[in-house]
Amino acid sequence: MDQFLFFLVAFLAVASAVYFVFARNPLYAILSLIVTMFSIAGMYVLLNAQFLAIIQIIVYAGAIMVLFLYILMMLNLNKGDESKKNNTLKFVGVFTAGLLLVGVLGVFRGVQDKHIVVENVDRGIGLTKNLGRLLFNEYVLPFELASILILAGIVGAVLIGKKDL
Amino acid sequence: MGVLLRKNAIVILGCVELMLNSVNLLLAAFSAYKGNGDGQLLVFFIMVVAAAEVAVGLAIIAMLYRNTRSVDVSIFNKLRG
Protein backbone atom coordinates (compact mmCIF):
# COMPACT_ATOMS: atom_id res chain seq x y z
CA MET A 1 0.00 0.00 0.00
CA ASP A 2 2.79 2.37 0.98
CA GLN A 3 4.73 1.52 -2.13
CA PHE A 4 1.71 2.00 -4.35
CA LEU A 5 1.05 5.41 -2.82
CA PHE A 6 4.69 6.37 -3.29
CA PHE A 7 4.68 5.45 -6.96
CA LEU A 8 1.38 7.26 -7.53
CA VAL A 9 2.66 10.46 -5.90
CA ALA A 10 6.05 10.24 -7.59
CA PHE A 11 4.50 9.74 -11.01
CA LEU A 12 2.17 12.67 -10.43
CA ALA A 13 5.06 14.91 -9.34
CA VAL A 14 7.30 14.02 -12.27
CA ALA A 15 4.52 14.25 -14.87
CA SER A 16 3.29 17.65 -13.71
CA ALA A 17 6.86 18.95 -13.45
CA VAL A 18 7.58 17.89 -17.04
CA TYR A 19 4.35 19.50 -18.17
CA PHE A 20 5.37 22.64 -16.30
CA VAL A 21 8.64 22.89 -18.20
CA PHE A 22 7.14 22.28 -21.63
CA ALA A 23 3.71 23.94 -21.45
CA ARG A 24 3.20 26.80 -23.88
CA ASN A 25 0.70 28.71 -21.78
CA PRO A 26 2.31 30.11 -18.58
CA LEU A 27 -1.00 29.90 -16.71
CA TYR A 28 -1.33 26.14 -17.25
CA ALA A 29 2.36 25.79 -16.39
CA ILE A 30 1.93 27.46 -13.00
CA LEU A 31 -1.21 25.42 -12.28
CA SER A 32 0.67 22.20 -12.94
CA LEU A 33 3.45 23.45 -10.68
CA ILE A 34 0.84 23.62 -7.90
CA VAL A 35 0.09 19.94 -8.51
CA THR A 36 3.82 19.23 -8.20
CA MET A 37 3.99 21.05 -4.88
CA PHE A 38 1.05 19.08 -3.49
CA SER A 39 2.51 15.76 -4.55
CA ILE A 40 5.83 16.67 -2.94
CA ALA A 41 3.87 17.42 0.23
CA GLY A 42 2.39 13.93 -0.08
CA MET A 43 5.90 12.54 -0.33
CA TYR A 44 6.86 14.30 2.90
CA VAL A 45 3.88 12.62 4.57
CA LEU A 46 5.09 9.24 3.28
CA LEU A 47 8.54 10.05 4.72
CA ASN A 48 6.92 10.64 8.09
CA ALA A 49 7.88 14.34 7.99
CA GLN A 50 4.51 15.87 8.81
CA PHE A 51 5.86 19.28 9.76
CA LEU A 52 7.53 19.71 6.37
CA ALA A 53 4.37 18.54 4.60
CA ILE A 54 2.25 21.17 6.30
CA ILE A 55 4.86 23.87 5.69
CA GLN A 56 5.11 22.80 2.05
CA ILE A 57 1.36 23.17 1.56
CA ILE A 58 1.14 26.50 3.40
CA VAL A 59 4.27 28.17 2.01
CA TYR A 60 4.67 26.71 -1.47
CA ALA A 61 1.20 25.69 -2.61
CA GLY A 62 -0.40 28.52 -0.69
CA ALA A 63 1.77 31.61 -0.66
CA ILE A 64 4.34 31.28 -3.44
CA MET A 65 1.99 29.86 -6.07
CA VAL A 66 -0.65 32.49 -5.32
CA LEU A 67 2.07 35.11 -5.77
CA PHE A 68 3.01 33.58 -9.13
CA LEU A 69 -0.61 33.48 -10.32
CA TYR A 70 -1.23 37.01 -9.11
CA ILE A 71 1.75 38.41 -11.01
CA LEU A 72 0.84 36.36 -14.08
CA MET A 73 -2.70 37.72 -14.15
CA MET A 74 -1.60 41.26 -13.32
CA LEU A 75 0.84 41.32 -16.22
CA ASN A 76 -1.91 40.18 -18.63
CA LEU A 77 0.22 38.16 -21.02
CA ASN A 78 -2.01 37.41 -23.97
CA LYS A 79 0.47 36.47 -26.64
CA GLY A 80 0.79 32.73 -26.51
CA ASP A 81 3.95 32.06 -28.44
CA GLU A 82 7.29 32.99 -27.01
CA SER A 83 10.29 33.50 -29.21
CA LYS A 84 12.72 30.64 -29.53
CA LYS A 85 16.08 30.55 -27.87
CA ASN A 86 19.04 29.85 -30.07
CA ASN A 87 19.96 26.26 -30.68
CA THR A 88 23.29 26.33 -28.84
CA LEU A 89 21.61 27.16 -25.56
CA LYS A 90 18.94 24.53 -26.15
CA PHE A 91 21.60 21.92 -26.81
CA VAL A 92 23.43 22.94 -23.63
CA GLY A 93 20.20 22.54 -21.62
CA VAL A 94 19.39 19.10 -22.99
CA PHE A 95 22.99 17.98 -22.62
CA THR A 96 23.16 19.08 -18.98
CA ALA A 97 19.89 17.33 -18.13
CA GLY A 98 21.16 14.20 -19.90
CA LEU A 99 24.38 14.26 -17.86
CA LEU A 100 22.33 14.50 -14.67
CA LEU A 101 20.20 11.55 -15.79
CA VAL A 102 23.32 9.47 -16.48
CA GLY A 103 24.69 10.34 -13.04
CA VAL A 104 21.47 9.34 -11.27
CA LEU A 105 21.25 6.09 -13.22
CA GLY A 106 24.85 5.31 -12.30
CA VAL A 107 24.12 5.84 -8.62
CA PHE A 108 21.10 3.55 -8.80
CA ARG A 109 23.06 0.81 -10.55
CA GLY A 110 25.67 1.03 -7.81
CA VAL A 111 23.05 0.84 -5.09
CA GLN A 112 21.22 -2.18 -6.46
CA ASP A 113 24.01 -4.67 -5.82
CA LYS A 114 24.62 -3.81 -2.22
CA HIS A 115 22.37 -4.84 0.56
CA ILE A 116 20.73 -1.77 2.02
CA VAL A 117 20.74 -1.80 5.78
CA VAL A 118 17.73 -0.02 7.16
CA GLU A 119 18.90 1.32 10.43
CA ASN A 120 16.80 1.19 13.48
CA VAL A 121 16.12 4.91 13.67
CA ASP A 122 13.74 7.17 15.49
CA ARG A 123 10.65 7.35 13.28
CA GLY A 124 9.19 10.39 14.97
CA ILE A 125 11.96 12.79 14.06
CA GLY A 126 9.80 14.71 11.58
CA LEU A 127 7.06 15.56 14.05
CA THR A 128 6.58 19.19 14.97
CA LYS A 129 7.45 18.62 18.61
CA ASN A 130 10.90 17.18 17.96
CA LEU A 131 11.75 19.61 15.18
CA GLY A 132 10.63 22.55 17.29
CA ARG A 133 12.81 21.41 20.15
CA LEU A 134 15.78 21.18 17.80
CA LEU A 135 14.97 24.52 16.16
CA PHE A 136 14.74 26.52 19.35
CA ASN A 137 17.70 24.88 21.08
CA GLU A 138 20.47 24.46 18.55
CA TYR A 139 19.30 26.59 15.66
CA VAL A 140 18.11 29.77 17.36
CA LEU A 141 20.64 32.03 15.64
CA PRO A 142 19.84 30.88 12.06
CA PHE A 143 16.15 31.20 12.91
CA GLU A 144 16.56 34.84 13.92
CA LEU A 145 18.76 35.52 10.90
CA ALA A 146 16.00 34.06 8.71
CA SER A 147 13.54 36.52 10.19
CA ILE A 148 15.90 39.39 9.35
CA LEU A 149 16.24 38.00 5.82
CA ILE A 150 12.45 37.94 5.43
CA LEU A 151 12.25 41.52 6.67
CA ALA A 152 14.86 42.60 4.13
CA GLY A 153 12.92 40.71 1.45
CA ILE A 154 9.70 42.55 2.31
CA VAL A 155 11.38 45.95 2.21
CA GLY A 156 13.19 45.14 -1.03
CA ALA A 157 10.06 43.88 -2.77
CA VAL A 158 8.07 46.94 -1.80
CA LEU A 159 10.90 49.26 -2.84
CA ILE A 160 11.34 47.58 -6.22
CA GLY A 161 7.62 47.33 -6.84
CA LYS A 162 6.96 51.00 -6.22
CA LYS A 163 5.75 52.91 -9.26
CA ASP A 164 8.00 55.95 -9.04
CA LEU A 165 11.29 55.26 -7.42
CA MET B 1 16.86 22.38 -18.01
CA GLY B 2 13.82 24.65 -17.97
CA VAL B 3 15.98 27.60 -16.98
CA LEU B 4 18.02 27.22 -20.14
CA LEU B 5 15.13 26.24 -22.40
CA ARG B 6 12.43 28.79 -21.71
CA LYS B 7 12.26 32.53 -22.32
CA ASN B 8 9.36 33.56 -20.12
CA ALA B 9 10.90 35.10 -17.00
CA ILE B 10 8.09 33.87 -14.74
CA VAL B 11 8.50 30.29 -15.92
CA ILE B 12 12.25 30.52 -15.38
CA LEU B 13 11.65 31.63 -11.79
CA GLY B 14 9.28 28.69 -11.35
CA CYS B 15 11.97 26.34 -12.65
CA VAL B 16 14.33 27.63 -9.98
CA GLU B 17 11.64 26.83 -7.43
CA LEU B 18 11.41 23.33 -8.86
CA MET B 19 15.15 22.82 -8.40
CA LEU B 20 14.97 23.99 -4.80
CA ASN B 21 12.09 21.58 -4.22
CA SER B 22 14.05 18.64 -5.56
CA VAL B 23 16.93 19.42 -3.21
CA ASN B 24 14.45 19.76 -0.35
CA LEU B 25 13.02 16.34 -1.08
CA LEU B 26 16.47 14.77 -1.17
CA LEU B 27 17.47 16.37 2.14
CA ALA B 28 14.24 15.29 3.82
CA ALA B 29 14.61 11.75 2.52
CA PHE B 30 18.15 11.35 3.86
CA SER B 31 17.18 13.02 7.11
CA ALA B 32 14.34 10.56 7.64
CA TYR B 33 16.61 7.67 6.62
CA LYS B 34 19.26 8.61 9.15
CA GLY B 35 16.82 9.59 11.88
CA ASN B 36 18.46 12.99 12.22
CA GLY B 37 16.44 16.18 12.37
CA ASP B 38 19.12 18.55 11.08
CA GLY B 39 18.31 17.90 7.42
CA GLN B 40 14.65 18.68 7.88
CA LEU B 41 15.53 21.96 9.56
CA LEU B 42 17.79 22.78 6.62
CA VAL B 43 14.78 22.17 4.38
CA PHE B 44 12.83 24.61 6.52
CA PHE B 45 15.49 27.30 6.08
CA ILE B 46 15.67 26.66 2.34
CA MET B 47 11.92 27.27 2.18
CA VAL B 48 12.37 30.58 4.01
CA VAL B 49 15.05 31.70 1.57
CA ALA B 50 12.95 30.55 -1.40
CA ALA B 51 9.97 32.58 -0.22
CA ALA B 52 12.07 35.74 0.08
CA GLU B 53 13.69 35.08 -3.29
CA VAL B 54 10.36 34.65 -5.06
CA ALA B 55 8.96 37.84 -3.56
CA VAL B 56 11.92 39.93 -4.71
CA GLY B 57 12.16 38.16 -8.08
CA LEU B 58 8.53 38.69 -8.92
CA ALA B 59 8.81 42.35 -7.90
CA ILE B 60 11.72 42.70 -10.32
CA ILE B 61 9.72 41.00 -13.07
CA ALA B 62 6.76 43.33 -12.46
CA MET B 63 9.08 46.33 -12.69
CA LEU B 64 10.65 45.05 -15.91
CA TYR B 65 7.21 44.49 -17.37
CA ARG B 66 6.20 48.03 -16.48
CA ASN B 67 9.25 49.39 -18.30
CA THR B 68 9.34 47.10 -21.34
CA ARG B 69 5.80 45.62 -21.67
CA SER B 70 7.23 42.12 -21.88
CA VAL B 71 8.59 39.31 -19.72
CA ASP B 72 10.77 37.86 -22.47
CA VAL B 73 14.29 37.49 -21.13
CA SER B 74 15.87 37.87 -24.58
CA ILE B 75 15.13 41.61 -24.67
CA PHE B 76 16.51 42.21 -21.18
CA ASN B 77 20.02 42.51 -22.59
CA LYS B 78 20.44 46.20 -21.97
CA LEU B 79 23.23 45.50 -19.51
CA ARG B 80 25.32 43.82 -22.18
CA GLY B 81 28.55 45.71 -22.74
From TrEMBL, chain A:
GO cellular component: plasma membrane
One example GO MF annotation: quinone binding
Domain of life: Bacteria
Subcellular localization(s) per the UniProt record: Cell membrane
Gene3D superfamilies found in the cross-reference section: NADH-ubiquinone/plastoquinone oxidoreductase chain 6, subunit NuoJ
First-listed, main subcellular location of the protein, grouped into a coarse class: membrane
Bilayer topology: Multi-pass membrane protein
E.C. number(s) listed in UniProt: 7.1.1.-
Keyword Acetylation set for record: no
General function of this protein: NDH-1 shuttles electrons from NADH, via FMN and iron-sulfur (Fe-S) centers, to quinones in the respiratory chain. Couples the redox reaction to proton translocation (for every two electrons transferred, four hydrogen ions are translocated across the cytoplasmic membrane), and thus conserves the redox energy in a proton gradient.
UniProt similarity note: Belongs to the complex I subunit 6 family.
Protein name: NADH-quinone oxidoreductase subunit J
Source organism per UniProt: Chryseobacterium rhizoplanae
Lineage of the organism: Bacteria, Pseudomonadati, Bacteroidota, Flavobacteriia, Flavobacteriales
